[in-house]
Design goal:
The protein contains eight helices and seven strands, in the order βαβαβαβαββααβαα. With about 230 residues, the chain is α/β, with parallel strands linked by helices. The chain has a seven-stranded mixed beta sheet, sandwiched between helices. The chain is globular and about 50 Å long.
Length: about 230
């Protein structure tokens, strides 16, 4: 049995439903194509991390009807499941509960909007669970692109309220999650920060990171952006 789950939350890359805050400069079709590149990069890097860290690779899909299609495009080793739930917090809670029900001792939940997040950050999150119950990789916008849950956090997620029983996708979601962890008696910490690609300025940030000679694990995303001169 694997030591835990590494879960990638993904959406069906349909025009008008993904990366809408990038329209403009992109058209809805271009934004969907960009998201496909981002998701492919995230899945490749996550697959490598799952093998290295002895984690089961899980693809959590929204909407549920897209599960088979996205599973067919995922790297070998991924198992797909439907996200379910009325909002992101409910979907994250559900996945955490499924992880605990499967007998896994930790879960790493990451989004598909942060293709520059490297395997080293996933490893750092897992290692942080030695001293903490919850480890988060902050974004520049007050959120986070990855959260790792240790055994106590998974157990706490079985009750109500859960760790994610608060508004998500807000400028205060990082601090809100840490505050909720404290209310549940969980120790939280932050690790190496990352960034999501949601807006035009995020594309400029991505370009700056590359020009700093960093090795970024998102070749498809970089090629897509460069080909369009954004």
């Amino acid at each position: 049995m694997k030591r835990g789950w590494l879960v990638v939350f993904a959406k069906s890359p349909q025009p008008g439903s993904v990366k809408t805050r990038l329209c403009p400069p992109f058209t809805p079709d271009e934004a969907a194509d960009l998201y496909r590149c981002m998701l492919a990069d995230v899945l490749d890097e996550s697959a490598r991390a799952a093998v290295a860290l002895d984690l089961e690779a899980i693809l959590a899909v929204d909407p549920p009807a897209a599960r088979a299609a996205l599973a067919a495009e995922a790297p070998r080793g991924f198992r797909a499941l439907a996200q379910g739930g009325a909002d992101l917090g409910a979907r994250m809670t559900r996945v955490a509960r499924e992880t605990a029900a499967a007998g896994a001792r930790l879960a790493v939940l990451r989004g598909s909007d942060s293709p520059a997040l490297a395997s080293s950050t996933i490893r750092e999150a897992v290692e942080a669970l030695v001293a903490a119950d919850v480890a988060l990789s902050p974004d520049r916008d007050g959120g986070y692109g990855l959260v790792a849950l240790g055994p106590r956090a998974l157990f706490a997620g079985l009750g109500r309220p859960s760790l994610f029983s608060h508004p998500m996708s807000t400028p205060t979601v990082l601090s809100d999650t840490r505050a909720q962890a404290a209310r549940l008696g969980l120790r939280s910490c932050t690790i190496t920060p990352g960034f999501d690609i949601d807006r035009a300025e995020d594309l400029r940030w991505l370009a700056e990171r590359r020009h700093e000679s960093e090795t970024l694990p998102c070749p498809r995303t970089l090629a897509f952006v460069e080909a369009r001169g954004r």
